[in-house]
Amino acid sequence: MRRPFLAGMIPLLLLLATGEAAAHAMLDHAEPRVGNKVATTPREVTLWFTQKLEAAFSTITVTDSAGQRVDTGKTRVSGSQMSVALRPAGAGTYRVTWRVLSVDSHSTNGSFTFQVGQ
Ligand SMILES: [Cu+2]
Q1: Please, which of 38, 51, 57, 74 could form a disulfide with 25 given CB 3.0 to 4.6 Å?
Q2: How far is CA 101 from each of CA 10, 42, 107, rounded to the nearest angstrom?
Q3: Rounded to the nearest whole angstrom, what is the distance from the C-alpha of residue 1 to the centroid of ligand 1?
Q4: Which fold has domain 23-116?
Q5: Distance from the CA of 102 to the center of ligand 1, in angstroms?
Q6: What is the 107 CA–ligand 1 centroid distance (Å)?
Q7: What does pLDDT average to in each consecutive run of 10 residues of the chain (118 residues)?
């Protein structure tokens, strides 16, 4: 009986050991992809996180090469995913800045860029 019990404990201990680092909502991936180049301005930017988000305190802002806001200001949150629509804008480097509050009440933030153009 002893061996199966220990074997069962190991994944649990690993989970507990890494739980602290994995506890916050971090950016998992994005569309457009982080650092990627797309031909035309996307209609919206969507971010996926490692944890569910609190809608009231989670926002995305997107600025163009001139630093002007190009997002509509209405971030939509659904589970661990959030998106914001973009106004039509030209070629250049876009910066996506995000701030989220995860359901465990920790806030995290970050930013990345993507390119629009041929
Ligand atoms: Cu956390």
Answers
A1: 51
A2: 31, 25, 4
A3: 36
A4: Immunoglobulin-like (2.60.40)
A5: 7
A6: 7
A7: 59 50 85 96 97 95 96 97 95 97 94 94
